[in-house]
Amino acid sequence: MSVIRLILIDKKTAVSGLVPSNSIGPLFSTVGENIGTISEFWKKSKTFDPDLEKHFKDYQDNPPIFESHGDGLIVIDYPRKRIESYQDFQPARRRGITFRHDGQKTLEESPIEFEIPENWEIIDHIFEEP
Fold first, then answer.
1. What's this model's pTM, rounded to 2 decimal places?
2. Angle of CA points 75, 34, 109, to nearest 5°
3. pLDDT at 130 > cutoff 50
4. 85 pLDDT more than 50
5. I need a labelling partner for 98 at 20 to 30 A (CA). Which of 34, 91, 112, 125 fits?
């Protein structure tokens, strides 16, 4: 299984750990729910991937590391309302579709549309558009 490092930042803390690369869609879907804290992020992420938080915590860095791993790095910064993507698994986009996961694989269900709010900045350092 390919992985990326995920960094989550809110007003109180920053955490980092590894998540499956195929969880990028569910990560963006969760941010699209317009929440503001890491604990809210994990609660909402269960809608899209019930095992994502467990996987992250099993591979959590202590202390947090700002360094790419596997397919890259994604930073979700709630105070700045910014996503920075340094990964080459899939482009970081404001709108898109994703599929729910069961922690191991994509579920064969209808796709879920997501949209990250306009007041969020998205910086994709790999798939930059002209």
1. 0.89
2. 90
3. no
4. yes
5. 125
